[in-house]
C-alpha cells in the first residue's frame, strides 16, 4: 500500500485504537483490530477481530499469542481510553476467525481479567 492509501485507511478506521491513539501510519497493526462498539454506564465496549496480518488466529497457539498481544495493548492504552470516553471499565470481546472466543475486562486500577485464554 502507498502512504496515501494507508492514510485513507486510517481515516476510515474511526473508533479503533489505531485511529484514536496511534500517531503515524502502519501497514500492519493489532490496533486496527481494536474497535470501540459502545460506551454505556461508564464502560467502553470493544470488539477485536482479525483485520490484517498483525492478528493471526488460524491455530490455537497463534490465537493465544494474539490474545496476549491485545492484553498488552489495552494495558498500554487503557488510561487514554478512560480519559477520552470518560469511563472506568473496558469490556473486550476477542474473536478468532469464526466467533467470540475470549475476552478481557480492564479495570480502573489497570488490573486485567482474562476470559478463556
Describe it for me?
By secondary structure, the protein is of the alpha+beta class. It is built from three helices and five strands. It has a five-stranded mixed sheet, covered by helices on one side. A hairpin with a 4-residue loop joins strand 3 and strand 4. The longest helix is centred in the middle third of the chain and has 26 residues, at 60-85. The radius of gyration is 14 Å and the shape is globular. It starts with a helix and ends with a strand. The mean pLDDT is 90.
| H/E series | HHEEHEEE
The largest pleated sheet is described as: 5 strands, mixed
Count of alpha and pi helical runs: 3
Q: How confident is the prediction overall: mean pLDDT?
A: 90
Number of strands: 5
- Report how far apart the termini are: 33 Å
Strand content: 25-35%
Return the structural class.
alpha+beta
Rg on CA atoms, Å = 14 Å
Spatial order of the strands in the main sheet?
Answer: 1-2-3-4-5
**Portion of residues within helices:** 25-40%
- The shape, in one word, is globular
Low-confidence stretches: none
Short description:
This protein has helices at 3-12, 17-21, 60-85, and strands at 34-40, 43-48, 89-95, 100-107, 112-115. By secondary structure, the protein is an alpha+beta fold.
Please write out the topology.
Layout: H1 3-12, H2 17-21, E1 34-40, E2 43-48, H3 60-85, E3 89-95, E4 100-107, E5 112-115
Parallel strand pairs: 2-3
Antiparallel strand pairs: 1-2, 3-4, 4-5
Amino acid at each position: 500500500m502507498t502512504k496515501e492509501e494507508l492514510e485513507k485507511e486510517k481515516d476510515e478506521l474511526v473508533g479503533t485504537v489505531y485511529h484514536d491513539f496511534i500517531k503515524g501510519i502502519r501497514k500492519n497493526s493489532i490496533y486496527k483490530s481494536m474497535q470501540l462498539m459502545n460506551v454505556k454506564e461508564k464502560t467502553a465496549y470493544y470488539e477485536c477481530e482479525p483485520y490484517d496480518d498483525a492478528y493471526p488466529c488460524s491455530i490455537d497457539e497463534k490465537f493465544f499469542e494474539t490474545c496476549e498481544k491485545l492484553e498488552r495493548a489495552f494495558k498500554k492504552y487503557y488510561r487514554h481510553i478512560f480519559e477520552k470516553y470518560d469511563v472506568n471499565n473496558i469490556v473486550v470481546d476477542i474473536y478468532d476467525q469464526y466467533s467470540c472466543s475470549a475476552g478481557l475486562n480492564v479495570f480502573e486500577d489497570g488490573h486485567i481479567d482474562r476470559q478463556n485464554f
